[in-house]
Amino acid sequence: MQPTSCSPVSSVCALGKMSAPGSYQAAPGPSVPTAPPSYEETVAVNYFPSPPAPVPGPTTGLVTGPDGKSVNPPAYYTQPVPVPNANAIAVQTVYVQQPVSFFDRPIQMCCPSCNKMIVTQLSYNAGALTWLSCGSLCLLGCVAGCCFIPFCVDALQDVDHYCPNCKALLGTYKRL
User: Fold this and answer.
1) How distant is the alpha carbon of residue 108 from its chain centre?
2) HSE-CB for 12 with a 13 A CA cutoff
3) How far apart are CA 111 and CA 96, in angstroms?
4) In this protein, which residues make up the domain named LITAF (predicted)?
5) Is 132 within 8 Å of 78 (Cβ atoms)?
6) What letter does residue 123 receive in the DSSP assignment?
7) How many CA within 13 A on the CB side of residue 24?
8) CA 121 → CA 25, 58, 70, 103, distances in Å?
9) Helix, coil or strand: residue 105
10) Above 90 in pLDDT, residue 10?
């Protein structure tokens, strides 16, 4: 008589033999192949040779596989073109000029037109304050020419700042 060993959880006792329950029992017949397929067999399955000669008739783009069935040819990819000098970094220097506040006096600055350090030249023009002063003097009775005095006073006129090198207008100070 054979000794029996039984576990109540995962095995079944039957005449001293241990077997797994359910679908874990082996099916009758050949169970495991004896050797893996050879290299030639493996390559022949994945290789799709082109037909030896063109077949007359409409071309469908299909290739006949080793089993005689028509299959799509494998996709071919072209090699990507390398970007010339992809690691090069273009350096561009940008000079940011602070906003300049123009007043009634010359200022030192870098001219944005000629890129030189300059001291601005001033030009005085009649502005809103000049015309208001002239109109108020007329209303007060200075019509005999005294109302035009604001056009001779620089403190009542607007100021234009020019570059002395390139004569470009750089900015304007408006009094009113």
Assistant:
1) 40
2) 7
3) 13
4) 91-175
5) no
6) E
7) 8
8) 105, 86, 88, 12
9) coil
10) no
